[in-house]
Write a structure and sequence with these properties.
Number of domains: 1
CATH class: Alpha Beta
CATH architecture: 3-Layer(aba) Sandwich
Number of strands: 4
CATH topology: Rossmann fold
Helix content: 25-40%
Number of helices: 4
Order of helices and strands: EHEHEHEH
Length: 143
Amino acid sequence: MSGKKHVVFICTYNSVRSQMAEGILRHLYGDRFEVTSAGVAPAGVHPMAIAVLRERGIDISHQKSRSVMQLRGQEFEYVVTLSDECKYKCTLPLQGKRNIHRPFQSPPEIADDQNKVIEGFRSLRDEMWKFIEITFKPYVPQD
């Protein structure tokens, strides 16, 4: 056992929001938290999520989409739902010692202007970064 607190981020497709959150938390506080992500209907990691995190020096290209059902029976300190679909419409088989619900709007994937798509993903990345710092930094011992 590593002594790290286990965290799972859950969204609808485990394609964008939960994948980005997994990568950001691992980057910021991976020495303190064991982190994974899952979705209700996994759809593969979105290439734009990979691209915008790479801009910040985070590589999530190795991460895989998985179903929440694959994580049944595992214990988590934190179960973080990132979409209202997960919180209100799905029966999740996972419960943590701390359940956190913070919905994020999924970025647009189709737009007349490709720059709007990229900016949507960047905006989500930056919002999630702040959320993760605010939520998890208090649990990281200060040297």
